[in-house]
Amino acid sequence: MKRLFWIFAVIAMICCGYVHRNVFKALITGEPMPKAPSWHFWVSKENRRD
């Protein structure tokens, strides 16, 4: 059971890393942050894609 948890945790981290790859790239290279998807309601409207 413990091993299954760790397998799931690693897969979840890989998926999150892939989804947020452009954000990580912007943080590392100093480029501007990409616009967030429109359903990210907690981000101000000027920083969201429409």
Tell me about this structure.
There is one protein chain. This protein has 50 residues and is an all-alpha fold. It is built from two helices and no strands. The protein is elongated, with a radius of gyration of 15 Å. The model has no long low-confidence stretch (mean pLDDT 96).
Structure summary:
The chain is mainly alpha-helical. The protein is built from two helices and no strands.
Total DSSP E strands = 0
Q: What's the Cα radius of gyration?
A: 15 Å
What fraction of residues sit in β-strands?
Answer: under 5%
Ranges where pLDDT stays below 50 over 5 or more residues in a row are: none
Number of discrete helical segments = 2
* Main beta sheet: none
Overall mean pLDDT score? Answer: 96
Give the SSE layout.
Elements: H1 2-19, H2 21-29
Task: Throw out a few tags for this protein.
50 residues; elongated
